[in-house]
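Batch manifest, entry 17 of 40.
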Amino acid sequence: MATTEQSSSTYGKTGPETGNGGAAFAHRRPPTNLFRVDFLLRLLLLASSVSALVVLVTSNQSRDFRTGLPPPLAVVSRAAKFQHVPAFIYLLAALCVSSLYSFVTMFASFFSISSPSPSTRILFLLILCDALMAGVMASAMGSAGSIAYLGLRGNSHANWLKICNTYGKFCRHVGSSVGVSLFATVVLVQLVVLSSYSLYRRTL
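Output type: structure tokens
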């Protein structure tokens, strides 16, 4: 008789606990879909990468210098082009890859907007690729920025003369391209943080 009462009391205790667990599972919300923000950031990355690429490609300027010699050697023309500097070629290649990368990943982001629970595999791959692309852009922007600074300020210790006082248009284009490339790198870092946060929310 006592055993029967104990079984009944135990059954009565476990009933509400099971019900509470089921209610908590029923009220559990799906993971937050942040791919709308992701898509806008990738669109911004595409616009900034293409803009920096166009500005860099058009950074050509020619100047005429007087030599003091008789004609036809009295005037010599010298051109400043981004092709003359390996760091600028590296930045050009990085911007081309960034533009193509942002265009391709925009499709993955767009098709994930309508999904109530995007795949964790997509988020993980985007984190890896965005981090790799951010590293490439940061290294290219840093190397091009150092050369641009030498052109602007020169280096008296190494006897490197500044050229921006002569090739002003060339330096403005290069400086603008480096600045926009820095903005694109920041956008890539924000994409890594956004995807990491979306993946972290799934563990809660």
